[in-house]
């Protein structure tokens, strides 16, 4: 579906609705702590994931929202205990 004219999401819409990519991203769901905040069209991701790949994938997925100026990735990588 194409919307014309294109309309950017506002901060409230972004905060209230996870991006489709983030919603489907297993790494985001497996984060031990996760938060998404939005201010002036800048998304900030925070929490803990288990690999650097997961950290980058969640950031990449966040860009699906229209009208973003930036994504600040504050996700921390911590390996799960008991794994090598």
Summary keywords:
alpha+beta; Histidine-containing Protein, Chain: A; three-stranded mixed sheet; elongated
Detailed description of the structure:
- This protein is an alpha+beta fold and 84 residues long.
- It has a single domain, classed as 2-Layer Sandwich (Histidine-containing Protein, Chain: A).
- It has helices at residues 11-16, 20-24, 26-30, 52-62, and strands at 33-39, 42-49, 70-77.
- The protein has a 3-stranded mixed β-sheet.
- Strand 1 and strand 2 (42-49) form a beta hairpin.
- The longest helix has 11 residues, at 52-62.
- The radius of gyration is 14 Å and the shape is elongated.
- The model is unreliable at 1-5 (pLDDT under 50).
Return the CATH class.
Alpha Beta
Structural domain tally: 1
Secondary structure tally, helices:
4
CATH architectural designation? 2-Layer Sandwich
Low-confidence stretches: 1-5
- Major β-sheet profile: 3 strands, mixed
Spatial strand order of the main sheet: 1-2-3
What class, by secondary structure content?
A: alpha+beta
Mean pLDDT: 75
Return the CATH topology: Histidine-containing Protein, Chain: A
Helix content: 25-40%
Based on Cα principal axes, name the global outline.
elongated
Residues in β-strands, percent = 25-35%
What is the CA–CA distance across the termini? 45 Å
Radius of gyration: 14 Å
Order of helices and strands: HHHEEHE
Question: What's the total count of β strands?
Answer: 3
